[in-house]
Amino acid sequence: MDWWKFWEKRPRPGPDYYEEGVALLDRELYHDALTSFRLALRARPDDAATHEQMAVAYTHIGLHEEASRAYRRALELRPTSPSAHYGLAFLMLKSGQTPEAATHLKAFLSHARPGREEARHLEHARRTLQRLGVSPEEASTP
């Protein structure tokens, strides 16, 4: 019977709250996703991807200040994150912070990996910069 006690004491892996949060985002259960992401941050408080996903959830439920803070935290942790620059840029545009938005769009374009980033996001960022009056030469440098 002693061998049974050995198995009882083995640590069991816990749930993957990050993956759970992503699945909930896909199902448009934004509040539930935020709960999962908060739990994920307990285990890994400096995970930039979790902060980015929280920003997405906050954006969908209209909490733009919280979304901006989450994107900014993600950028503190991973300054070259294309998705954080992209998301933050459009939040800034909504709040009238055009020069800052342009800076983040340029950073997105300089850090985006063409094979990884969807073509529509790249084109959307370029068109938005053109609409803001930023030349293609300026758009290639952050």
Task: Provide tags for this entry.
single chain, 142 residues, mainly alpha, Serine Threonine Protein Phosphatase 5, Tetratricopeptide repeat, 2 domains, 9 helices, 72% helix, elongated
Topology:
Elements (H helix, E strand, L loop, with lengths): L1 H7 L8 H10 L3 H14 L4 H13 L3 H14 L4 H13 L3 H14 L7 H13 L4 H4 L3
Helix pairs in contact: 2-3, 2-4, 3-4, 4-5, 4-6, 5-6, 6-7, 7-8
Could you explain the architecture of this structure?
- By secondary structure, the protein is an all-alpha fold.
- It has 2 domains: 13-78, Serine Threonine Protein Phosphatase 5, Tetratricopeptide repeat; 79-142.
- Helix content is 72%, strand content 0%.
- It contains 9 helices and no strands.
- It has helices spanning 2-8, 17-26, 30-43, 48-60, 64-77, 82-94, 98-111, 119-131, 136-139.
- Helix 3 (30-43) runs antiparallel to helix 4, helix 4 runs antiparallel to helix 5 (64-77) and helix 7 (98-111) runs antiparallel to helix 8 (119-131).
- The chain is elongated, with a radius of gyration of 19 Å.
- The protein starts with a helix and ends with a helix.
- Residues 1-7 have low confidence and may be disordered.
Range of helix content: over 70%
Number of helices: 9
Largest sheet: none
- Number of spatially distinct domains: 2
